[in-house]
Amino acid sequence: MASKTRAAVFFIITLVLFLCPFSVFAEDEPAEDVFVPPRLSENAIPWDERHPELLDGDMLYAQSAILIEATTGETIFAKNADEIMYPASTTKILTAYLALQMGDLANDEVTISQTAVDLVPATYTRIPVSEGETVTLKDLIAATLVRSGNEGANAIAEYFGGSVDGFADLMNDAARMLGCSESTHFTNPSGVHDENHYTTVRDMAIIARAAMMNQEFADIVRKNTYDMPASNKHPARQLVGQTAILNPESDYYYRDCIGVKTGFTNRAGYCYVGAAERDGINLISVVFYSSRIGRWTDTKKLFEYGYTQIQSITPEALYADDPRVIEIAGFDLDDPQHGNLTLGIRATDETKDMKIIGRKAMIDSLRENFSQISSVAWTRDFRAPISVGDTMGVLTFYSENKGTATYDLVATRSIAAREDAPPTLEQIEAYTLADENPFPRLSMDLIIPPAFVLLVLFFLIRAWIRRRRRRMRKLNLMPPPKKRPFREL
């Protein structure tokens, strides 16, 4: 019985020792240093997913973290954002970005050297590719990003920089051009640990933002698998990444996440550079030295917080919050809304993107002052009959960043005209133009008004004359009537 117990214990210990290197050192790092998982502060207030807007740095496992809005680069949240950290395999973001900028995906092919393979420490991740294997640049970049293949990064470096050291110089030059600080310095293309290979989450966010603007890069990093075609050394295969937040079958899947890159070394901890898109708002997050699970939960907390702080809205939605209501004349007396007509809005150019992205306070200010950033030119009289869809006017919206855009203000319902309503000017003009008789037709409508006016004038003039005569008599200004002599007969 004791022997069976010893055998069971031996089996468990052997299994643990077998699995530990893969669980702790799976992504990048040899085992010289021991990774110490970070813990939340004992005084930290628990994060409440019902109130993601209440985020504090103590709620994150990451030692250093940042969240930015991708369009403007505005910082939304920061925790030790300028502290120098080791980036591990998130380095490959810059490596892939440079390769996409410098290479020709349609024609470039890269042959893997023995040096590119040998430079990868034994326990670091490989694609794998072999010495002498020729792959297209596109496949090499995708495999390097998705699988985090270190020999792939080395092969890219040799192809464009001549060597790892030569490419590192290009990386540092690119980092300065992108606006990174002096706290960023690269010595290799893969993120293999080096004391002189470091950056900050703020600078890595700058690099990731530039990389995500490249559509090829964005298309690659949103996937957790890549189908690698056959080469001269390997058959076709599917490469599987370790990005749980992109995996719908994972407990840590986040549906708005669209990339980008994981990283781990014992000295760097678990790292993740993430990107998310929701309602046209693009966010980029960076967490350095988090825990194995914490990098996913930290990223989710950052994204959820960001979407409470940044909003997107269109001019149509701003208008819909307070649409124009006009009063229509000559409406049918049975009209249920007594001639009141709410106008809808329709873009004259539906291809023009006028979406506004900004802080919640800024969006609220636009709502309150919409009439000041738009103007309306009316294009027809507010008189029945009105048909649904009729254009009543044109609204022009003025944006600080995207110029102007015009929108038709259209009737949302039909309004019938009152049957006994007098004709409008347009109706009279149309009737006149359609009449072949050059002289106006006589009708009671044409005779009675002028006759009435003449009759009124006649009585007014007659009354004035009588009044004037009476006044003159009173003033003795009128000579008395002459007396005629009478002869007696």
The CATH class of the largest domain: Alpha Beta
- From the 3D coordinates, which CATH architecture of the largest domain would you assign? 3-Layer(aba) Sandwich
Largest sheet: 5 strands, antiparallel
Mean pLDDT: 88
The CATH topology of the largest domain is Beta-lactamase
Query: Which ranges are low-confidence, i.e. pLDDT below 50, for 5 or more consecutive residues?
Result: 1-7, 9-26
Count of distinct structural domains: 2
Total helical segments: 13
Helix content class: 25-40%
How many E strands? 16
Question: How large is the share of residues in beta strands?
Answer: 15-25%
Strand order of the largest sheet: 2-1-9-8-7
For the record, what is the CATH homologous superfamily label of the largest domain? Answer: DD-peptidase/beta-lactamase superfamily
SS class: alpha+beta
Tertiary shape: elongated
Order of helices and strands: HEEHEHEHHHHHEEEEEHEHEEEHEEEHH
CA-based gyration radius? 41 Å
